[in-house]
Amino acid sequence: MSFSAGWLTLREPYDRRARNAAVLDAVAVWATQRQSVAVVDLACGLGSTLRSVSERLPKRQSWRLVDNDLSLLARAGDLARPPDLTVSTVPVDLARDLEAALDGPVELVTNSALLDLVSHEWLDRLVTEAAARRLPVYAALSYDGLATLDPVDALDSAVIDAVNQHQQGNKGFGPALGPEAAATAPSRFEAVGYTVTQGSSDWVFGPKDAEIQTEVLTGWAVAAREVGAPPISDIIGWLARRRDHIASGRSSMRVGHVDFFAQPTATR
Ligand SMILES: C[S@@+](CC[C@H](N)C(=O)[O-])C[C@H]1O[C@@H](n2cnc3c(N)ncnc32)[C@H](O)[C@@H]1O
User: Which of 62, 67, 101, 66 shows the shortest CA–CA distance to 81?
Assistant: First the structure.
């Protein structure tokens, strides 16, 4: 599954605003005991997590950015960064080589908008590998399946149901957790003795956020068409009505996400 640089650039400021402050605070508290920190960011895209988390970490940081999209990785590596921060980019297919991505000097694992794409089995691999290395994991922006639109349309819930079904298709890691990721992932870490700080990180789009609303709702219409329900003519009518609401400055929406920071407990 590929993600365009345009889409990742469009969503970054909304992601940044949505990231849960208490979860970021927990990362910062963990980091206060350290002079420096070595981070691996899984499925980095354009490096949005680096830009949001680096300000909460000690000045001396090294980031290993991992993705299987060479073009995104090249652009992420080119981005400006503070002088004490070193960045390396590593092309890895995480579905196959997660373990290799975590090897070497790593003290913190980060990811965002990833866990809803992965399977139960892959999540278990991440939990097992992180626990074996006693690594803390910051995971942001896992979609939780709860979305609301204003003004309400009679077809909204059928489209959102279809989107949630589509989210559980194979995104390259086997059948995806989709909306289940938000609840499942923190509990898997707790089950192996991690302490988890979690909180919501919903996208909140107001009437002025026309471009991202259009992009998200068009994506939902495409997903619903691929699922095959509601009927295509209904989806087309729904999207037209939603676009009219956006064009007339009346549309708002909330899309549910969850962030968490999982830390290995001090004694096990
Ligand atoms: C929704 S984007 C999130 C990107 C970034 N973390 C962010 O929050 O902006 C998902 C990312 O997962 C990457 N990805 C998908 N499948 C992958 C795989 N098998 N191995 C490595 N990266 C993968 C994509 O290239 C994309 O950059």
Answer: 62
49 Cβ below 6 A of ligand 1: yes
Tell me: pLDDT of 267 over 80: no
What mean pLDDT is reported for the chain? 96
For residues 78 and 140, the answer to whether their CB atoms sit within 8 Å is no
User: Kind and range of the H or E element at 14?
Assistant: helix 5-18
Q: What is the three-class DSSP state of 107?
A: coil
- Distance from residue 98's CA to the centre of ligand 1 (Å): 13
pLDDT of 127-138, one tens digit each? 999 999 999 999
- Cβ–ligand 1 distance for 45 under 6 Å, the answer yes
pLDDT one-digit tens code per residue, 202-225: 999 999 999 999 999 999 999 999
Residue 237 CA to ligand 1 center (angstroms) comes to 32
For the Cβ of 110 lying below 6 angstroms from any atom of ligand 1, the answer is no
pLDDT at 82: 67
Judged by DSSP in three states, 33 sits in coil
Alpha helices in 64-113 (DSSP H): 70-78, 94-102
Instruction: Tell me how far apart the alpha carbons of residues 207 and 11 are, in angstroms, rounded to a whole number.
Output: 16
Residue 104 near residue 142, CB atoms below 8 Å: no
Question: Is 3 close to ligand 1, i.e. is its CB under 6 Å away?
Answer: yes
